């Protein structure tokens, strides 16, 4: 599979790279190229930093809320074979829910902005589709002339959000089924028949769908810190891995149902099962897992953010001057702190002509 091949080759000679040397002490390092696959745990740090730099100018000096919309397990089950369709419906139903309730004068009566991020996993890498939303605590009035702020520590009623989200998502699923956009296999093959599908959805109309609203972040800086952890996250990060060999993989686990230290534990899976769970969360090609709605949507985003800053009496944020120095050239020497310069690049599958400086061994003498 292309994803696994990319991850295996990431930062190895298989992808080529460059050699950098310090201009002061001649310390030399080798840097292999990254695969840049969006599912690679090693590549998402740089992508997240670039994305966050672009978002900085959009932040407003208001409280930000964190809202989570989660699909019921039954719908999550049929999303295995309908990822592009059902994940897209999850985005649409959740954003439409927020925009509709926020615009209602009985609640907020404002046009809000939303940044939505799709996650499809739980801590054990099981299938758990949900959308994280970061939303400013307020919005523009219908005439665009004033800012309507949400109440402190409260944005929108979660029970109202839950009911509308349930209704919209079920309606969209029925429409997608009627249009022939859903496919079913194995134990779900019978759901291809419209009456069976209606029967499958019927119990979901009576259960509560979970929408979670957290307390506002402590300022825009905390929003950026949170987003940098969530926007480009993959099913499991390298820091959660404890041990791995040909037979099994052990990793850290957090059980959100348990409070206190006991919620942190470990899990060991057979290597094949670990890989299977990881691949569950590979998104369809071209699918956008970060989306913007309302004031932050499309080509009008810059204009809407500028308008929000105007009514809030906040000056526009000046973008940082771009640094034209490459990452390797700007990198400090790990030996003396001097500036590193690229002295050689090499193609994929090739070996560099220059060799890196060997590590310095520290010899300790027993003075006792």
How does this structure look, described?
It is built from 10 helices and 13 strands. The protein has 368 residues and is α+β, with helices and mostly antiparallel strands. The strands form 4 sheets. The chain has a 5-stranded antiparallel beta sheet, with helices on both faces. The protein has a 3-stranded antiparallel beta sheet with strand order 2-1-13. β9 (241-244) and β10 form a beta hairpin. α2 packs antiparallel against α7, α4 packs across α5 (158-178) and α5 (158-178) runs antiparallel to α6. It starts with a helix and ends in a 22-residue tail after the last strand.
Strand neighbour order, sheet with most strands = 8-3-5-4-12
Arithmetic mean pLDDT: 85
**Structural Rg:** 25 Å
Query: DSSP helix count?
Result: 10
Instruction: Give a count of the beta strands, DSSP E runs of length 2 or more.
Output: 13
Q: Low-confidence runs (pLDDT<50, min 5 residues)? A: 319-329
Strand fraction equals: 15-25%
Shape: globular
Q: What structural category arises from helix and sheet content?
A: alpha+beta
Topology:
Elements: H1 2-9, E1 17-22, E2 28-32, H2 44-55, E3 64-70, H3 73-78, H4 83-103, E4 113-121, E5 127-136, E6 138-140, E7 147-149, H5 158-178, H6 194-201, E8 211-214, H7 220-230, E9 241-244, E10 248-254, E11 264-270, H8 271-280, E12 290-294, H9 301-311, H10 327-330, E13 340-346
Antiparallel strand pairs: 1-2, 1-13, 3-5, 3-8, 4-5, 4-12, 6-7, 9-10, 10-11
Helix pairs in contact: 2-7, 4-5, 5-6
